[in-house]
Amino acid sequence: MKALVRWGATLGLLGSTLLGSVFVGNLSVLALSEEKIKEKLDAIPVYLITNNQGLPLSRPLSDNQTTGASVTGVYMSREEAQSFIKELQNVPGKDPKIQKMVNSLQVTAVPLGVIYQELQQSKNQSERLLFAFKPVDREVQGAMELLRQSGQKVTQFTSVPIFAVRFSPNQGYVPIQFKSDNEEFIPLFLSKRDAQGLLNQVRQQFPQADIQVIDIDGVIKTLQDKDDPWLNQVVLVPSQESREYINTLPREGRNNSGTARPQQR
Q: Record's PANTHER family (predicted)?
């Protein structure tokens, strides 16, 4: 994919403190096929900062394990990616050529599955592009609050948080059912607020229901490693911001809304 080709012109303005965990995409034996995993990840749009040719802003990595590799930031929020571009454009005293380059930056949305696919195809290449996720700040804070409420001592959360609703801490995940058929799905939310909405419905019947905090790395590893039939039912639910963005894109059809089906599994 051309949008994921390494952008050789590094601005030197992308600080490492901006980046979350580096997703390097190491594989073990697959429980689901790569195609199935990609299909699930494709439901989530992520946002790269690119130039006017669609090439991502990147910086080289110099440690011994990633010699020749470079890294680019992957934003979970389009608004936060746009805000970062504005910050770069407003830095005073840049060389005119650098300023022109910075002014050409834009936000490019790609499916998360495309990044996953790119990582699998390039995992044995020394000069590959790695992806460092920048999670949404409020979702990170929400994840840490939930973890503290469960008794865990956490001071940071460096990955992208995922929120899953359970019937209780020791029981299974709550499924939803689409109105168009009887098929059940297990939603994993990118937004704590969305998970809370499902939890509020379920608690009317199951008072012990709660929200489990996991992360995108753990989800992908589970899809790769585990041989459990219920994994086929897992669906990733984008945040409201991303859903609104998706709704602006031309599509032939739209999915029906899901409703909670609070029946114990």
A: PROTEIN TIC 22, CHLOROPLASTIC
Backbone angles phi, psi at 264, to 5 degrees: -65, 135
* Higher-scoring residue by pLDDT: 168, 181: 168
State the Cα–Cα distance between residues 72 and 131, nearest whole angstrom.
5
Q: Which of 213, 178, 59 is nearest to 130 (CA)?
A: 59
Greatest mean pLDDT among 13-27, 38-52, 237-251 lies in 38-52
Task: Spell out the domains of the chain, with CATH numbers in brackets.
Answer: 33-134 (3.40.1350.100), 135-246 (3.40.1350.100)
The helix (H) or strand (E) run that includes residue 222 is helix 216-225
Distance, in Å, from the CA atom of 254 to the CA atom of 247, rounded to the nearest integer, reads 9
Residue linked to tokens 């704590």: 192
pLDDT class for 66, splitting at 50, 70, 90?
low
